[in-house]
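Many introductory courses stop at the sequence. We go one step further.
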Amino acid sequence: MLESELRLANDAFSEQRFNLALAHYENFFPSRVSELAALLSESQVLTHIFRNYLFCLKVLGRNDKLIRILYEYLAYNPLDTVLRQTYDFKENTRRDNSGDALLSIIVPVYNSGQYLDHCIQSIRSQSYKNFELILVNDGSTDDSAAIISRHAAEDPRIVVITNMVASGNPGTPRNQALAIATGDYVGFVDSDDWINSDFYDKLMTLAVNNSADIAFSGGFYNHMSDGRVNQRTYTTVGFDDPNSPRFKTHDSFMIWDKVFKRSLLEIFNIRLGETKAAVDVPFIFSAYYYASNIVFDDDLVGYNYRRESESSVTVAHRKSSNCEFEFQAFEAVKNWAIQQDIGQYYYSIIDIKLVSSLMYTLKMVNEIYFDSVFERVKSLFEIVNSDDLKQYCKANRKWWQFREFQVVLEKSAIEVKQFLEEKKRAAEEKAFAKLIEPRFKMSGENPGVLFFPCWMINNPYQKMFYESLYDEYGLSIEGYAPKALGTALIDKKKGEFKYIHLHWLHNFFDFEDDTVIEDTITSLSYAKENGFEIIYTAHNISSHDSKDPVKEKLNRSRILELVDHSIVHGNFAKSLLVEEFSVDPQSTHIVPHGTYGNFYGTMPAKEMAREQFNIPDSATVFLFFGNIKGYKGIFNLLSAFNKLRAERDDVYLIIAGRVLDEDIMPKLVSECDDRNIVFRPGFIQNEEVATYFACADLCVLPYEAVLTSGAAMLSLSLRCPVLAPSIGVLPEIVTDNIGMLFKDFEDMELKLSLFADGKSPIFDASNFDEFLHSYSWPNVVKNLPFLRVPAPLNYVKKSI
């Protein structure tokens, strides 16, 4: 009977009677993919005949079925080469030439008002313009709704979904957005995160040009609450190679660092889970399985993930519950695998992720839940294919992961808990060993400087300062985390290094823990006993917002008693340090903050910069740039700007920087609710800095208290004039040909008004030439005579 059907189908096909051929082919070929694969494996001839069936579908306009069959079969049998050629039958992704949105960007929102404006602005400012932005307000009770409404009124690309009652999980609002999305591709952004301006331009160019099912970026920036920014990058080797043990596995199991072809999501109804956490798990497993054409941009790191604490929401759930959501997520995946008749190889891939996730859960879960969670984990591990897991761990040098798996299978809950505690202790010891490895290193001919803390990721000051010291004095230089200062490092480095250099003294004491200052004093005293000299740079004399000024001054005094050489940024700072702490003026050296040179790259044209912020070319633009704290007077600036706005509509204010006083955020968000105010809270990436200053006409520093200002030096380095208070060392830096000083906030208001009226001095770009020369790093570091060692005749500098 089946042979007869096949003969009739082939006859009809040869006569181009495709409807009849299709009917006979469908009677012959099974619809269940596992049965189809078994049949085609019997004969390559049958595989070629099956291509005739697919051709019938194409000719008769049954593209949806054709595409689904190809996705299913190629996912089930990734080693197939014959049918993969038929992939050309699939319609190409629609090019960026229609009125429809090519990209749908989905942002779920729940009480994220303090960050939401920045998130939305970063999306609206994308250089890739052809998108729709779907904002889902999932029952927020803060000012999120007002922020969404303002942006929606300004940008017709924004679509709003409002849930009057919160769904209680992060998956539901995303699924609501997927249900109405119209783009050819879909991207996701979390409402407290933001993206670089070219993020989707690069991803979409990659995706569209390759008709990709998924386009991956190369990593993301992890922003910690203490200001640290870590860049995480991915390994993509083997993901699209069926012969690799890393096939269909990727370092990223998140949805927000890539774009997905929406037709793929719709064909297989790929949706987020709707559990308390781990909602990405079922979505990613399904998308990775069916995706046949995957592309990567390993150099693209443009997503900024805000981690306000060391523990993410998912981690918090793991520590405070029995982790039911984790088991539900993998149960959903296993049910999906059975229902969709997936290839057997993919069960091993699911198992690999299951083992990794559940081991992490065991390490994080609260002790009161450990035993019950352990029993469930063990029961799931018992059905894992251990041979496949072992092969994966071996190929990826993750023997420790296979060892953990074995321990769970072989040991009791008490024994596993002890095993994990031992691993934790070993990890802490390893972390300490890593702690006393340098974060920055230059090798010179002369005994050099160990500096603490090494904060080069967020601030180029140290990098430029120490590179200049190296060039000028031939010193060896190493930078460390503040906790590395101790006897172990001193013993390791004595003889090779001569100086310990301290920055930002608040890192070396703790108001809640007196052992920190005692350890600091002990370490510095031990260093001096072993021949080290102590250098201190006074970036400030005392903290502007100290919790305990009396105790802070006492702690600083104890440290400064051990200091041999002090560095200050100006005459005012020197006099204040001598007066407050009785340091020796003869050993206090003035080394101004140097310029930033070309660190931030080429300045874009003003017109291009303003386009990114949707600011007219004719407007007057004021800029506040840098960390935002109470003493920096941001509300004084907003008050002055609002008075200007009452009189004119051609002035704009950009506020950009991390808000370090979280208690002022609600008021700040409220007062920035003006279409002429661009508020960008968060760390500004290095490649974005020049755009802000190119956009601005005047950088305004409304500080209530300050000693020196890196923001002032940055602005002047980029030839943007500044308006700054006549306090600290600023009068020594800001001359009347490159900026203005104000004596009080009434004077600041007046100068802002005069500037907007065009009645201020003209600050031509050439005015900055003398400043840039005088404050270049090679010039400012010359005033450290104690570092100068006569160079030997055979002196040759080298760096690593």
